[in-house]
């Protein structure tokens, strides 16, 4: 499979018309594929709750657009902020396992993310509740 600009344009159109202002394309080849490889298209205004992945590191690459990756401590205090996107020169971030994080989408954006192991929904205790 080739991922080209036409494919990214189509994903961004789907994200723009989505109620959540984002859409995902699963790159696994079969249900038996135990990797997590996803292309996400996101629009400004989408809300990604602060969350963590306790069992895996997450690798995220910005293919198009610009976003800010934000890290937090266990008390919800911001600890780091990274501007990512081709125009910034920062293309990828490695999110250590157990790190609370979210994204702020600054302009229509497409990312590729990869995690270890089969997909598991984020457990309720791994979504930070607003204080």
Keywords:
Jelly Rolls, six-stranded antiparallel β-sheet, about 130 residues, mainly beta, single chain
3D structure, described in words:
By secondary structure, the chain is mostly beta strands. The chain has one domain: Jelly Rolls, CATH 2.60.120. The model has no long low-confidence stretch (mean pLDDT 95). Strand 3 and strand 4 form a beta hairpin. 10% of the residues lie in helices and 41% in strands. The termini are far apart. Strands 1, 2, 3, 4, 5 and 6 form a six-stranded antiparallel beta sheet that branches.
Brief synopsis:
This protein has 131 residues and is mainly β. Helix content is 10%, strand content 41%.
Q: What radius of gyration results from the CA coordinates?
A: 14 Å
For the record, what is the CATH homologous superfamily label? Jelly Rolls
Basic shape: globular
Give the CATH architecture: Sandwich
Report the average pLDDT across residues: 95
Task: State the end-to-end CA separation.
Answer: 44 Å
Number of domains: 1
Question: How many β-strand stretches?
Answer: 6
Low-pLDDT stretches are none
Described by strand count, sense and barrel closure, the largest sheet is: 6 strands, antiparallel
Classified by CATH, the class is Mainly Beta
CATH topology: Jelly Rolls
SSE order: HEEEEEE
Number of helices: 1
Tell me what portion of residues adopts beta-strand conformation.
35-45%
> Helix share of residues?
under 10%
Given the helix and strand composition, which structural class is it? Answer: mainly beta
